[in-house]
């Protein structure tokens, strides 16, 4: 049986760890060629070696970085079909009045500007080549049902959701799809920031107690949702916020 993503090429940002690493694994398992676009050289190279994929040193907040990423993807694999905007950043949970300008800028640059740049660079490639395309933004339940202490992280994910819907309607006629996946808390490199304390089972318990299915999300949960949205099975799905949250947002 061919994989569900056979013949497709995907860029996955932040694929060196956490959800991104899980998404890269699933995409490779389903037959896609994957480009690991990662700021951390160490984790990016490691992931690419393990997955027999291509690593491209990337800072998603920089236009030149996206231009280089597209060029290297086309040079290596000859085409591009899917972009998963997964790389994200946050400050540590704290009272909103204590957030610094640098922390605000970090959230907006890594979580929002990255999506502006990815579409600004990649959409013209899809249009010029008359190719269908699929963008998947890793948003958050924070965009739908925010918790206190993360105002500007939550707002950045809210911006992602509305930009995503706007582009879905704008580029639908060109068969370029835009979808968001909204994870509930998982256990990754960012989790201690959301909790405002170390990521232990005990510290996660208060968050998890509000999840009807009774556990945190895993990279495999997020990867399975991304695989569906990236595949041809989702050919008629665009502009959605797919909550992968064990019922948290109900
Ligand atoms: N962990 C959670 O509980 C949770 C919940 C909801 C949403 N999310 C979202 O999931 C996504 C993935 O985060 P994660 O939880 O796997 O955390 P993570 O820290 O394990 O992974 C994030 C990756 O992004 C990379 N990265 C950061 N800045 C970058 C940049 N400028 N350019 C390129 N790469 C960069 C990091 O090096 C890291 O490998 C983020 O968008 C995050 O907001 C996480």
Automatic annotation (TrEMBL):
- The answer to whether the entry has keyword rRNA-binding is no
Among its keywords, does the record have NADP?
yes
UniProt entry keywords in alphabetical sequence? NADP, Oxidoreductase
Q: Name one Pfam family in it.
A: adh_short_C2
Single GO molecular-function term?
A: oxidoreductase activity
Q: Which NCBIfam families does UniProt cross-reference here?
A: PRK07231.1
Q: What is this protein called?
A: Uncharacterized protein
Q: Which organism was this protein described from?
A: Penicilliopsis zonata CBS 506.65
């Amino acid at each position: 049986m061919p994989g569900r993503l056979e013949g497709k090429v995907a860029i996955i940002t932040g694929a060196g760890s956490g959800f991104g690493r899980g998404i890269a694994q699933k995409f490779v398992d389903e037959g896609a060629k994957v480009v690991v676009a990662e700021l951390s050289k160490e984790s990016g190279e490691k992931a690419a070696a393990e997955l027999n994929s291509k690593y491209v040193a990337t800072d998603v907040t920089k236009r030149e970085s996206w231009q280089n990423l597209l060029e290297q993807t086309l040079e290596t694999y000859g085409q591009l079909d899917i972009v998963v905007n997964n790389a994200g950043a946050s400050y540590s949970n704290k009272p909103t009045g204590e957030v610094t300008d640098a922390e605000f800028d970090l959230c907006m640059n890594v979580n929002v500007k990255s999506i502006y740049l990815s579409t600004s660079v990649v959409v013209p490639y899809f249009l010029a080549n008359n190719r269908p395309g699929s963008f998947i933004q890793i948003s958050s339940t924070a965009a739908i049902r925010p918790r206190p202490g993360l105002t500007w992280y939550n707002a950045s994910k809210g911006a992602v959701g509305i930009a995503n819907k706007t582009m879905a309607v704008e580029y639908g006629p060109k068969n370029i799809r835009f979808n968001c996946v909204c994870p509930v808390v998982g256990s990754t490199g960012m989790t201690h920031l959301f909790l405002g304390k170390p990521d232990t089972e005990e510290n996660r318990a208060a968050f998890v107690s509000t999840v009807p299915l009774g556990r945190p999300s895993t990279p495999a949960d997020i990867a399975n949702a991304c695989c569906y949205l990236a595949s041809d099975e989702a050919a008629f799905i665009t502009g959605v916020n797919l909550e992968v949250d064990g019922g948290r947002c109900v």
